[in-house]
Backbone:
């Protein structure tokens, strides 16, 4: 296998017309030198074999090839910029001999944007693949090769209203920016008046957002005797009322108590609902691979992948500023539901899980939090705080 | 580390944009050293997927305000993919500073009447 790789690298170099003779020359001169030293053919073969077992030889050839190929004007080798390959010596277990192999990591992304008068859309496509392969298949490492393909279609509506008299407005906005930057108290009458004028020149509007992202991943061991295909879908939904006192912001009922707190503490001079903190939503349809879930194995006798829906939403808003500390309220809710769960899983109340956490948090890390519910087995690392009230001072 | 100064239009425009979007409430001088997790959108209780979603919304609105509302253009050799990828890498890192974002933006946009 390593000879094939070596030949391919020489071949690539020849195809791209880059210094194709250098490495042949080096090998030939080594062999010629050994012959002058009266080393027999069998010994020369051993020495050359040892040389081509050395990952540094392949890494040098590969680096040379990439440097030459990406320097060329031709676009056909440009994809190599997204490919990381490194030749290594692997040892699958302590008892096995080491073997030459390679680790690879390829990431390719493409994006296309479509702007219309009141919307901005984008198509993005991504392909990533990574893994480790030993050239002797008996000595392959025990990890999996992974290939992922994802596509994303997203669209934003609104956000900014483009002015007709651009030149005068852009210049005025710059003047206002400079004046505002010299004011220390953002609640002073001068600052409030300037921000009002700023808002009359920079016209923001309600913004709506959605995104759909199907994902596919394929995992296999190196000889493809074990394979796993996993598909998923993520849907994002969001709305923001960027303009103060816009009717959409009044639907943000979660912010009402905090608007009152901002008014009482003097953070805002008027009762102001923040439309920028309207909760957003993310829905995921995934295949879960519960390979280490011993509870599941004891209940249904296997750890086969299963389909699951996840819903997540969150809310965060500003409460007040005390000296240099900003105080925020944070909340997050997640719901998980296994689709067509086996009866044993349902009876054990493991087919659905929900988790809610909220926290008061300051800039320096002080927080008070409360959480309830539980996360499914595979998502427990995402748990932020334990059940009950907590406080922590950093 | 980037300089946070009101002589720089990237700093000024970013600060007024984040203020208008209710992402911060501090004066100019106090805003450069705010971390991303001090901005209103960054909820540390969220999964990485939801933080990415919030950052995407913020990055797109910043780009709209700069280009459609404030007359900024992309620098030569810069496109929206590069701009949004750069902004997202900072917005999703809770420990990055507002002035880091300004530095990234300064290299991506030519602001209205900006002289370099």
Residues:
């Amino acid at each position: 296998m390593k000879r094939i790789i070596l030949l391919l690298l020489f071949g690539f170099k020849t195809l791209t017309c880059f210094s194709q003779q250098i490495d042949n020359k080096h090998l030939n001169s080594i062999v010629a030198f050994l012959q002058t030293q009266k080393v027999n053919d069998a010994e020369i073969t051993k020495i050359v074999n040892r040389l081509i077992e050395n990952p540094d030889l392949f890494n040098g050839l590969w680096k040379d090839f990439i440097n030459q190929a990406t320097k060329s004007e031709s676009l056909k080798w440009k994809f190599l910029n997204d490919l990381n390959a490194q030749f290594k010596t692997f040892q699958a277990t302590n008892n096995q001999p080491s073997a030459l192999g390679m680790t690879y990591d390829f990431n390719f992304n493409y994006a296309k944007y479509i702007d219309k008068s009141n919307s901005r859309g984008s198509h993005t496509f991504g392909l990533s693949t990574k893994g480790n392969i030993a050239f002797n298949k008996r000595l392959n490492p025990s990890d999996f090769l992974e290939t992922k393909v994802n596509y994303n279609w997203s669209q934003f509506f609104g956000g900014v209203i483009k002015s007709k008299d651009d030149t005068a407005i852009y210049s005025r906005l710059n003047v206002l920016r400079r004046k505002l930057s010299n004011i220390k108290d953002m609640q002073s009458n001068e600052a409030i008046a300037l921000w009002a004028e700023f808002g009359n020149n920079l016209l923001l509007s309600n913004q709506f957002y959605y995104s759909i992202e199907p994902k596919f991943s394929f995992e296999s061991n190196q000889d493809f005797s074990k394979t796993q295909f996993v598909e998923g879908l993520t849907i994002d939904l969001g709305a923001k009322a960027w303009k103060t006192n816009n009717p959409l912001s009044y639907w943000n009922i979660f912010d009402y108590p905090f608007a009152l707190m901002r008014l009482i503490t003097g953070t805002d001079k008027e009762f102001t609902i923040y439309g920028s903190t309207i909760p957003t939503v993310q829905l995921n349809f995934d295949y879960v691979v519960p390979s280490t879930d011993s509870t599941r194995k004891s209940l249904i006798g296997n750890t086969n992948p299963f389909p699951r829906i996840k819903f997540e939403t969150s809310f965060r808003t500003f409460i007040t500023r005390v000296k240099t500390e900003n105080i925020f309220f944070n909340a997050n809710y997640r719901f998980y539901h296994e689709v067509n769960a086996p009866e044993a899983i349902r009876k054990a109340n493991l087919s659905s899980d929900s988790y809610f956490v909220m926290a008061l948090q300051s800039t320096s890390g002080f927080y008070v939090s409360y959480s309830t519910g539980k996360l499914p087995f595979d998502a427990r690392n995402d748990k932020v705080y334990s059940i009950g009230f907590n406080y922590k001072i950093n | 580390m980037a300089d946070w100064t009101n002589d720089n239009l990237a700093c000024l425009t970013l600060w007024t944009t984040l203020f208008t979007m209710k992402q911060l409430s501090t004066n100019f001088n106090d805003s450069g050293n705010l971390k991303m997790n001090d901005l209103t959108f960054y909820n540390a209780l969220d999964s990485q997927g939801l933080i990415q979603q919030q950052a995407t919304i913020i990055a797109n609105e910043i780009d709209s305000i700069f280009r459609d509302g404030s007359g900024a253009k992309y620098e030569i050799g810069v496109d929206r993919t590069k701009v949004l990828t750069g902004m997202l890498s900072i917005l999703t890192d809770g420990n990055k500073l507002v002035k880091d974002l300004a530095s990234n933006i300064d290299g991506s946009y030519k602001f209205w009447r900006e002289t370099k």
In short: Residues 15-22, 385-394 of chain A have pLDDT under 50 and may be disordered. The longest helix of chain A spans residues 55-71.
